[in-house]
Design brief:
It is built from 2 helices and 6 strands. It has a single domain, classed as Gtp Cyclohydrolase I Feedback Regulatory Protein, Chain: K. The longest helix has 10 residues. By secondary structure, the protein is an alpha+beta fold. Helices cover about 20% and strands about 45% of the residues. The chain is globular and about 35 Å long. The termini are close together.
């Protein structure tokens, strides 16, 4: 899976950072220290890590991912990453 979408809410304290859904490569999630989380009333699960987005982006760069685009929606920042 060459694409990853990560997001975090803008706040004063770091994390959590959402790093993927239940279909993402579990080895990458293990590397990021992410755990699968299911929020009440959602029909999907997502992987989360307590690391702030900067740490997650640094870790993903170390394994070959590059940021393709970034945007903000309300109080949420979203990054799209790609690995060749």
């Amino acid at each position: 899976m060459p694409h990853l979408l990560i997001s975090t809410r803008i706040r004063l304290e770091p994390g959590p950072t959402i790093v993927g859904d239940e279909r993402v490569d579990p080895e990458i999630m293990k590397y990021l220290g992410a755990t699968l989380f299911h929020e009440k009333c959602n029909d999907y699960s997502e992987y989360r890590t307590d690391d702030c987005a900067r740490i997650v982006l640094d870790k993903l760069e170390n394994v070959g991912y590059r940021v393709v685009s970034m945007t903000g929606i309300g109080q949420t920042c979203i990054w799209l990453l790609h690995k060749e």
